[in-house]
Amino acid sequence: MISLYLPERTWLHAVPAGWKLLALALISLVAAPLNSLPVMAGLLLAALVLYASLGKAALKQIALLRPLWPLFLILLAFHWWNGDITAGLVVLARILAMVLLANAVTMTTRMDAMMDAVEPLLAPLRLFGGSPRAVALAVAMMIRFVPLLFALWEALNDSWRARTGKRGGWRLLAPFCIQTLRLSHHTAEALAARGGAPRGDRR
Amino acid sequence: MKDRSLVQIALYAAIFAVLGLLPRFDLPFAAGVPITAQSMGAMLAGVMLGAWRGALAMVLLLFVVALGAPLLAGGRGGLGVFFTPSVGFIFGWIAVAFVAGWIMQALRKAPVFPAALIAAVTGGIVVMYAFGIAGMALVGGLSVLDAAKACLIFIPGDAIKAVLVALIAQTVARGLPEALLSRNA
């Protein structure tokens, strides 16, 4: 599956996932109430320095922010309209810095390492009769479902095109839902045949 | 939790992801305005699964996105999306699915199309924009009124999606009645 993860190892890869998440949470808590432009610009600069220290591949990932530009322009326009362009720049710098920092954590942490890091947070589920292992199973099933559902959509689209010569588009949604439900019945049966979803602790 | 519920939650989380990754639909009755189908996923999860399972499907989706999977429209994902001004909409999806599912269950006796339409409009527009505007105001540093103005351009697209969800629910109810889990709970 495509991923935001950077395959080449950097120094940030070596930092345990838990520490990175903790640092991100702390920075976001500290940055949220601050409204000084120099401080926010400094934070943004620090985020950019972090990317530079991670290498060329990381710098390329800054392009992921491109879809946000229209929204940023709208935000700036509103702040300018209200006569406080500085406030708009503070907000913009804070959003950019936090998104960059958060993406840096995602870029340098494997999904399974992230899962292990947040697993202790799932422990309270046991009080409600849930299980952290059931969560891990649901995550795995969902990720596995995505390519299956794609293939299913393509098959429906092909047969629609064979009949009409056009793309199916939204008309495929209802048959798609029905077919996926069949798929989920089979999966549930297969799961039950293997002893069902886990109930106890992990491993 | 029963195996079947767990699978259905995973399924609708995956459907949500697939809706965002599909090429954009051109809706004939929207004068060819392209819209991403993704926010339909939240309404669909609620209307199809009911309140609790629908909401849990959205929780699962957000969890996997936070773990680092680029499953949101346009291949967005990872922790970064939770720091953008759209974060209100993103967390709103949980409430959207819950409210849509709850209305669907409450209107169990009503015909499918109007029930699903009420559920999708209330969840997918009223609830979603309440969350979306709050998020835009908080993260973007705007007043609630300005935030509302910045969000309103998306409402026509979501109204179309709500109608589509109701049409889908009706078709599914005809083709495979037991698939509409919100009704036989």
TrEMBL record, chain A:
Cell compartments where the protein resides: Membrane
Membrane topology: Multi-pass membrane protein
CDD domains per the UniProt record, alphabetical: EcfT
Claim: Cell inner membrane is one of the keywords in the record: no
Top-rank taxon: Bacteria
Segments traversing the membrane: 21-51, 63-81, 87-105, 134-153
A Pfam family reported for this protein in Swiss-Prot or TrEMBL: CbiQ
Alphabetized InterPro entries for the sequence: ABC/ECF_trnsptr_transmembrane
Keywords, sorted A to Z: Membrane, Transmembrane, Transmembrane helix
Family under the similarity heading: Belongs to the CbiQ family.
Protein name, as recorded: Biotin transport system permease protein
UniProtKB/TrEMBL annotation, chain B:
Gene3D superfamilies: 1.10.1760.20
InterPro entries: BioY
Predominant location category: membrane
Cellular localization per UniProt: Cell membrane
Record keyword Phosphoprotein present: no
Species annotation: Ancylobacter polymorphus
Name under which the protein is recorded: Biotin transporter
A GO MF term: biotin transmembrane transporter activity
Membrane topology note: Multi-pass membrane protein
Keyword presence, Isomerase: no
Transmembrane annotation, as ranges: 6-22, 55-73, 80-103, 115-139, 151-173
Family: Belongs to the BioY family.
Keywords: Cell membrane, Membrane, Transmembrane, Transmembrane helix, Transport
